[in-house]
Amino acid sequence: MSDSQRPGPVAPPTPFEHSLAAYQYSLPPEKIAQTPVTPRDASRLLVVDSATTQRHHHFRDLDDLLRPGDLLVLNDTRVIPARLRGYKPGGAQVEVFLLEDKGDNQWLALVRPGRRLKPGATVLFGPNPDQPDLVAQVVATDPDTNGRLLTFEHQGSESLFTVFERLGEVPLPPYITDRVASPDQYQTVYAETPGAVAAPTAGLHFTPDLLARLEQRGVGRSQITLHVGVGTFRPVETDNILDHKMHGEWIDVSAATVAQINATKAQGGRVIAVGTTVVRALEGAAQTGELQPWQGKVNLFIYPGYQYQVIDGLITNFHLPGSSLLMLVSALVGRERLLALYEHAIEQDYRFYSFGDAMLILPEATGG
Q1: β-pair type (71-75, 77-79)
Q2: What's the number of CA atoms in the CB half-sphere (13 Å) around residue 264?
Q3: According to CATH, what is the number of the domain 83-167?
Q4: How far apart, in whole angstroms, are the C-alpha atoms of residue 52 and residue 65?
Q5: What is the pLDDT of residue 10?
Q6: Where are the alpha helices (DSSP H) in 304-353?
Q7: Domain 3-79+181-365 carries which CATH code?
Q8: How far apart are CA 9 and CA 334, in angstroms?
């Protein structure tokens, strides 16, 4: 049975579900996690196991909650030190937040103060103004993000990424105000491919021990790369969500991953995406109607009414009100059901957002 024919609890979208107001909820500020728990897999896990029921577990129980033959798909992107603090030749301080690698040492970035950084402006980085470690030239503005296109130059044999590692800071989301977490805590333990400016946070709960136990359980593991950028965290600002335009993000879905997914489904296993970035990568690579290897940009916007093609279940954190991520998960279990789950999680003192707790949505909860 195809996903489009799959019976389940998710009803066709109503006009209200196309309004931004439909995806709001009230979160007490103290529920926003400021630091991760240790060990990582000690975080709580809300298991959604049917259209009407849920159970409380810890993330370390995941190997008991999945079946032999299931396949976890992870995002192996690595967060780069995307926040650079520099200065103009006259000494005025500048902050650059890298968004997207455009190739040939060019990056799309948000800059502060933007009004002073028009095309032609120069930004210097490093402790010595007379011999800066890195120089950026503003070459254009970007109307979609209100950012700037910067061309970087540096001396020596180091790669540009190495210079960023030396001069930059791993950015934490603005709602994490305590700033006591270490950069390593904002990386998954399996992060390999540098390029993200924010972490794929559903994966932050895994430990090497848990991954080993899942392997012993017979749960397969595959990976994609989606470099998390503005497409993931840019807020939806249009009253009608259909008017929202997703910013493209770079993905790599390999032939090996496609083969693993197809083999899993052929053998009756379930494909469990670890995070919304994995969902968008896999579903984006299946927009022809069939999952295919894909390397390049995707800007797929998933909201209620979308028919899932690839994934069967999802591991996800709790997301911000009005976000495209909340809409994506609503498309899987239904908006009213998801908001009821969020209300339940708040009542049960779950921790929210990047360093918070997680939710496992099993196929039984989606009609799968």
Answers
A1: unpaired
A2: 25
A3: 2.40.10.240
A4: 18
A5: 58
A6: 324-333, 335-347
A7: 3.40.1780.10
A8: 7
